[in-house]
Task: inverse folding
């Protein structure tokens, strides 16, 4: 008897937890669970009033549905922690492949297979447990129909009579979540058509004289990993930007800065980079795959067609990268092509300073025609600890000098097991290091013919930004030739390398056209 009651109690607690648990881990408070789920009351009434021959099949089907809902809720929590949004039942499945590839490349094939097995076991376990729990509860309630009906009616009346504004007594979170997911499914099913319509407009495709105002300039576009607007509030980063601004001004450079709204947050760097370079809003993997299968004019391709040597320096690429062909680079330098012989620092395969030095050696250290480079740097990628120290450029060599510094191969998700205050401090330190690499590169290797653009790809995880942060990231253009910044004056960006709170904000997808129109003849 005691065992049966214990099983019934545990089944009830499990169903209750699934129905009322928030989809945001930060909202997991004691008060959040002191609510009566309306969906549970309705479910009990339906199952109690059904004839026995229909009740059991209905309980099993309802339990399976509840188990799948629990799986989706777990996915929602994970996506909210990393990407600031719920899981999309239509568009997010392709993201699971890069996740498995990451585990495979970081921890090995056994770990990736184990992760898949555990994920499948989790899904099956949730579904079985939910189905068994609902079936158990329905049997108990059906055995005491009068008592169950009166209990449901009493609880429903209590929820209404005890309701106080601002103090929720009941919960409809499960129904609300289902409605939200249904709406996103509807949008997702039509997203491919919407994207095709957006991609069909390519105003600068085939225009003569593109980028003619930058002839003879080396143009470098550098993505600083996780460099979001929130970073500007950190003392380390603010001080580094002030110092860098003064140093660049002393060296004869001027800068303008603003904000771009990224299509992603917390992760998905490749989507942000594709957005900026293509001029299309890439906020899901389906759009990314459609983009790289298209013939869209990207900034690297526009420079290449205008007689620049176009290169991609991508230290985060450690295996085959067929999507790279879409950007039409003359040359792609992946991690293994940079000549780095030092240790890993967290996720980063190569310290940012070394990445920039490798680019300089390969492309700008000798007599050359104009070069355009897109460089996604990785030192400020989570987990943000440890971060290498800046070293004298003459001592970089093959990177062996970094062997004297503390290093690790901690995965990005290790931040969730650390003290949030320490994570924020490490994040600020890593962004400061990346900004120092950019500033010192321009100081050392810049000249009248260098135009350097650096920007964030997305905001960091919510552990750093807090809940409700925007998706805005800083962007800066630096040049010594005053003619370059005269042309961008119409953008009305702020002076210096740190945008102010009222600096202009535009979508990241607008940058391609803004850049091309500014440095090209007017369209006919």
Result:
């Amino acid at each position: 008897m005691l065992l049966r009651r214990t099983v019934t109690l545990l089944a009830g607690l499990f169903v209750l937890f699934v129905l009322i648990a928030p989809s945001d881990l930060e909202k997991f408070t004691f008060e959040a669970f002191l609510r009566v789920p309306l969906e549970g009351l309705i479910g009990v009434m339906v199952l109690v009033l059904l004839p026995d021959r229909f009740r059991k099949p209905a309980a099993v089907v309802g339990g399976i549905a509840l188990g799948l809902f629990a799986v989706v809720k777990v996915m929602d929590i994970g996506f909210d922690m990393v990407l600031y949004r719920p899981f999309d039942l239509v568009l997010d499945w392709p993201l699971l492949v890069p996740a498995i590839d990451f585990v495979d490349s970081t921890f090995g094939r056994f770990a990736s297979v184990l992760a898949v097995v555990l994920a499948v076991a989790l899904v099956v376990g949730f579904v079985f447990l939910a189905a068994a729990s609902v079936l158990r509860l329905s049997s108990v309630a059906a055995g005491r129909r009068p008592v169950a009906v009166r209990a449901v009616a009493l609880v429903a009346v209590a929820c209404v009579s005890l309701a106080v504004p601002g103090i929720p007594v009941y919960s409809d979170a499960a129904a609300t979540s289902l409605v939200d997911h249904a709406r996103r499914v509807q949008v997702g099913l039509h997203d491919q058509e919407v994207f095709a319509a957006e991609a069909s407009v390519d105003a600068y495709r085939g225009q003569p004289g593109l980028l003619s105002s930058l002839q003879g300039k080396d143009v470098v576009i550098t993505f600083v990993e996780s460099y979001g607007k929130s970073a500007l509030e950190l003392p380390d980063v603010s001080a580094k930007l002030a110092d860098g601004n003064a140093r660049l001004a002393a060296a004869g450079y001027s800068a303008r800065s603003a904000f771009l709204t990224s299509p992603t947050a917390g992760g998905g760097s490749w989507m942000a980079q594709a957005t900026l370079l293509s001029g299309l809003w890439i906020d899901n993997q389906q759009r990314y795959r459609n983009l790289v299968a298209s013939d869209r004019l990207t900034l690297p391709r526009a420079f290449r067609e205008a007689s620049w040597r176009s290169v991609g320096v991508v230290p985060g690429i450690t295996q085959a990268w067929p999507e790279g062909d879409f950007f039409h680079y003359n040359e792609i330098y992946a991690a293994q092509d940079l000549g780095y012989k030092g240790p890993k620092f967290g996720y980063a395969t190569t310290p940012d300073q070394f990445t920039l030095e490798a680019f300089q050696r390969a492309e700008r250290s000798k007599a050359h025609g104009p070069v355009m480079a897109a460089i996604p740097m990785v030192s400020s990628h989570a987990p943000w600890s440890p971060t290498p120290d800046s070293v004298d450029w003459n001592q970089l060599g093959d990177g062996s000098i970094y062997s004297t510094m503390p290093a690790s191969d901690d995965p990005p998700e290790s931040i969730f097991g650390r003290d949030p205050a320490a994570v924020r401090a490490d994040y600020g330190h890593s962004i400061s290091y990346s900004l120092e690499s950019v500033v010192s590169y321009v100081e050392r290797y810049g000249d009248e013919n260098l135009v350097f653009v650096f920007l964030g790809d997305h905001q960091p995880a919510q552990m750093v930004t807090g809940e409700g942060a925007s998706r805005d990231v800083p962007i800066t253009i630096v040049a010594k030739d005053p003619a370059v910044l005269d042309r961008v004056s119409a953008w009305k960006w702020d002076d210096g390398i740190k945008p102010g709170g009222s600096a202009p904000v535009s979508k990241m997808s607008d940058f391609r056209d803004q850049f091309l129109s500014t440095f090209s003849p007017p369209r006919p």
In short: The longest helix spans residues 109-143. The chain has a mean pLDDT of 88. The CA atoms of residues 219 and 265 lie 26 Å apart. The two ends are 85 Å apart (CA to CA).
